[in-house]
Design goal:
This protein has 289 residues and is of the alpha+beta class. 38% of the residues lie in helices and 24% in strands. The chain is built from nine helices and twelve strands. The protein has helices at residues 56-63, 93-102, 163-169, 181-196, 206-212, 214-233, 238-258, 263-272, 278-288, and strands at 4-8, 12-14, 20-24, 27-31, 37-42, 50-55, 73-79, 85-91, 106-109, 114-117, 126-133, 139-146. The strands form three sheets. Strands 4-3-2-1-11-12-7-8 form an eight-stranded mixed β-sheet, covered by helices on one side. A two-stranded antiparallel sheet has the order 5-6. It has a two-stranded antiparallel ribbon with strand order 9-10. A hairpin with a 5-residue loop joins strand 11 (126-133) and strand 12 (139-146). Helix 6 runs antiparallel to helix 7 (238-258). The radius of gyration is 24 Å and the shape is globular. Residues 1-51 have low confidence and may be disordered.
């Protein structure tokens, strides 16, 4: 998907043109880079009026959004670590500008005719890391990290009803989140772990055996890691490498379950390292040990 991204860092809103909106603790200023600026004033019923300065290229980017006849576009919030779709709402220009400045996912309520920030009541904010426009410029993605459950029902996301489950079983017990492959695997492993307490002596699944025996689990991780390395050393084909990597991932995720560590925690660590060199990161770990 072709997209234009707002890369949100602590001090600057950067667009692909290199234009920047400077955000300081005392308010807003604009680094013009010797380009013409256009001033925008926006307000909500809940927040005082603020003035933002956008250069012509950033303004053009907002102008390119295909707002509907009510000045709205679909806005989708997505978890930056898990990829899960958290919720869908509508945003107008002011909502996007507020999201940029506050770094909290902000939408426009059609029923109340006002801006609202997700979490302003529940405190379960969605902290924005990036904003994307789709290729047709008629929908927006707020890519962020939620502070807690997004749905008012207490569910992690608003998307937990499977149409195919409803079709096949007519009645669905509990909520089934729209999980990606990796998180579906994590969910299954967690379920097997929960079943251990109620399990009587009998034949256990392979996952349950691994969960119960640390020595077996660690030996399998070492074994599968060695097999993965062999695919490189012995120049085996890509399918073999993919298969061995799947084994490594599966066994490693069982270990995470034993340690009560979520794959989302791992993803967050990886994301934090994006702007840090491997050498620098290693030095930091050594210094902290």
């Amino acid at each position: 998907m072709m997209a234009v991204s707002y890369s949100l860092c602590p001090q600057y809103l950067r667009v692909s043109s290199g234009a920047r909106l400077c955000i300081s603790s005392g308010g807003y200023s604009w680094d013009t880079h010797k380009k013409k600026t256009r001033h925008l004033v926006y307000a909500s019923t809940q927040k005082p009026v603020k003035t933002l300065c956008l250069d012509s290229e950033a303004q053009t980017l907002l102008d390119s959004v295909k707002w509907d006849d009510k000045g709205l576009a679909v806005a989708i919030a997505q978890n930056v670590d898990t990829g899960a779709i958290l919720m869908q709402g509508f945003a107008n220009r002011d909502a996007v500008l507020t999201t940029i400045s506050s770094r909290k996912a902000t939408f426009y309520s059609r029923s109340r005719s006002m801006l609202w920030t997700k979490g302003e009541t529940s405190m379960n904010f969605i902290n924005i890391h990036d904003i994307f426009l789709d290729c047709d410029r008629d929908s927006i993605i707020y890519l962020g990290k939620p502070d807690g459950p997004t749905c008012h029902t207490g569910s992690e996301t608003c998307y937990y009803t499977s149409v195919f489950d409803l079709k096949e079983h007519q009645q669905v017990e509990g909520n089934k989140l729209a999980l990606t492959t990796l998180y579906s695997l994590e969910s299954t492993i967690s379920q097997r772990k929960a079943e251990l307490a109620a399990e009587e002596n009998g034949k256990s699944s392979w996952t349950k055996r691994l969960l119960k025996h640390n020595d077996l689990l660690c030996s399998k991780i070492r074994e599968e890691a060695e097999e993965l390395c062999k695919t490189l050393e012995e120049n085996e084909d890509k399918s073999r490498t993919a298969s061995e990597m799947a084994d490594v991932l599966y066994h490693a995720m069982v270990l995470l379950a034993v340690k009560d560590v979520k794959i989302e925690d791992v993803m967050q660590v990886l994301r934090q390292r994006f702007s840090q060199s491997g050498i620098e990161e290693k030095r930091t770990r050594i210094a902290e040990s």
